[in-house]
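Researcher: Next entry: Anaphase-promoting complex subunit 4 WD40 domain-containing protein (Guillardia theta).
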Amino acid sequence: MEDIEIVFFDPDGNRLACRTDSSSIEIWDLRQASCLHSFHTRDDHLSVLRWRPDGKALATGWEDGLIQVWDVETGRCVRSLEGHREEVECMSWGPDGKTLVSVSIDSPVRVWNLSEGRSFKHSHGPITTVKCLEFASDGKTLAAGCNDGTIQIWNTEDDELQQSMKGQSSTTWNPDGQTLLSLSQGEMSIWNSRSGERKKWFDRTSTDIVLLSVLRWRPDGKALATGWEDGLIQVWDVETGRCVRSLEGRRDAVQCMSWGPDGKKLACGYLQGDVRLWDVDSGEAQALETRIRVATCFKQDPGKKLVAAGSQNGVVSLWDVKTGECKEKLRGIVENFITCLSWHPNGCLLAAGDNKGLIQVWNVGESTSTPNVFEGHTEEVLMLRWSSDGTSLASTAHDMTLRVWEMSREGHGHVQAVSDARGVCLSWSPDGRHIASGWDDEALRLWEV
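Model: Predicted structure:
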């Protein structure tokens, strides 16, 4: 079972995003209990994951400071935001989905303009290290929980500090946009963000010393859920401070939680990799199986008789279009995530690129075929295209290079282009002398091979 690092409901509550330790993000349909999409991300540690308010995209913040925005339907990275130099600590979308605020260990709060892909403002506050932040519903007010034990309320339009509350380190807004929930050293508090007044309450009704892992507001703001390291989940009435529901059955640390928008469902991810969807009223849980093998890319052969399907474990399956039978499984020299496929013009060869930068080419007619291996890219292969005569193969990758490989010389591929952007589409001219390439900086370039 794979570990689940992060789990998060989409804004409508019909889908769930999970990040697994296999470096994939899985999108689940909660009504059908089925995996809709699975796409490979980076192998680095994912620090934070956030849905865009319209539910069509996800933002990921990484250990090296990179922020990426992913199209949920296609699984493609549509925007990379570079500026932080160290781990992204926290992020929050503006309500309109056009801005994203983020903070890392090394730098102040950044407010990003997503249409331009740049940070248009570097907030001058807070002046201490921020551990968490969140927009209020007005899209202007920002709460920042700092490691010196204060919560600071900022107006992002003029960088004005509106309120500072001491003694807390983790915070989340009530949906009313006026009230904050905070956590510090096992103590939960509710704050009025305007007056700074605090109402403190906490009682787990247990003599055991157990750490609180995560807490989340219910969408109506009248209750909240707490998840504990021993697997207990509790739902609390905000007005009375009483626990109104205890959800038990999994003796494993709760890693992450997210409410459905109607407040009736609670999704929880556990340390050992389980994901459970709790019905809060009945106390019953539905387990989601998160190790379903999902095809990562498809390509039909020129004769339209076979479809090739890449997978997460490095196997390429060939399927008969008419009968639906799997005719052959092509196994590579490694079990890397297959990211793209390209058939040779005569249909006898099949090229596959993977998430580690490796390209392999199989002779499809030979069941015992060992692939030819082409090494040169240092990061995920994005696109493969054969020349019309089948003598050369062009490739682009996340390492921002375009390479041309000669099939007569295994392992040889010269660098045709180096760019400050990533090639997202390729096309050969009919005579094989030129390559047109589209890049994620919105440029179209024409190369002479």
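Model: Note for the record: The chain has a mean pLDDT of 76.
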